[in-house]
Batch of 2 targets.
Target 1
Amino acid sequence: MAVERTLSIIKPDATRRNLTGKINARFEERGLRIVAQRRLKLSRDEAERFYAVHRERPFFKDLVAFMTSGPVVVQVLEGESAVALNREIMGATNPASAAPGTIRKDFAESIEANSVHGSDSAENARTEVAFFFSESEICP
Ligand code: GDP
């Protein structure tokens, strides 16, 4: 096992319902440390670049509209196997299929408004962390 970093985003459906603290508690209770965090509103260009891998998917336009509909909280989580552990804490993309006790099961509104993003591999985590944070903004 190795200490890793992963990018997490608390999405607009969750910031709108004032769930940032409750979601952060889920990470901290499972041993992940929030080593950088910033609340911001994504521009359309930023959301399109961040989700570029989904550009050809039928839901891309809706996803960009949703992700720019309100503030998000971008954060770097650090801990043992942080990438996989965060995916476990988040639960499946579709809240209807998410396991009990996961963030998406407990908080998500729909497959789109599913409260959190988390990097899905160590390589993507490095790219996604660098998308939002410089090394000097990360304080382990
Ligand atoms: P994730 O890694 O679990 O976030 O899932 P994906 O990378 O497959 O999808 C990225 C994001 O696109 C998801 O978190 C949802 O917000 C959204 N999304 C995924 N599938 C669908 C879908 O079928 N319909 C809509 N409207 N949004 C979706």
Note: The CA atoms of residues 12 and 22 lie 15 Å apart.
Target 2
Amino acid sequence: MEHTPERPLRVAILISGRGSNMQALAQAVAAEALPVDICTVVSNRADAAGLAWARGQGLPAVALAHRDYPSREAFDAALQAHLDALAPDYILLAGFMRVLGADFVQHFAGRIINIHPSLLPAFPGLHTHQQALAQGVQWHGCTVHFITPVLDHGPIIAQGVVPVRHDDTPDALAARLLPMEHQVFVQTLRWLAQGRVRLLADGRVRVADAPQRAWLGATFFES
Ligand code: GRF
């Protein structure tokens, strides 16, 4: 379904820290007048810088600190209740560093989308830039994907690719990748608002009229 200003796409954005991906999404919504209603920003850390930014923008932002809950299940249940009350179409994990349990994922099946800083299925988990450098890959990237109960796994919506330099550090590589993450996540949000993203029965994703869904870093580095 194509969304309109009268019938906007409702999204919840989950963060844990800086929130630059959330900022890119919120800024695109404002700058491009996308038919998107960011119905909540949730951080599992009360001191997340992104939370303060969101509040400053007048976005409905709440801290739901996982430390305040006795178990993973209890935290997931509280998060689920908060989200259910708002009925988002999609839940966007934008640097949300908390593993969500299978029940939660099942409850929102096909509606949770994550950005991961590697070209999945390579390098799931943490320290992806370090993993990429250790393997000597020449291209690194990010993946926007639907989540499944398996961590950093699931139907791929879009990917962005950047070159790796021989003298890269994890920080340098992360800094090169970040603008690409923003670009790919924002494009995904546009597609969602246009109602073009379809999860196929075979577990892959089709985006109507987007035969190619990979972005290549503009700069080529010679060794
Ligand atoms: C991003 O690299 C994201 O892919 C990863 O954590 C980082 C979060 O950055 N999962 P930010 O909070 O969006 O600035």
Note: The chain is about 35% helix and 25% strand.
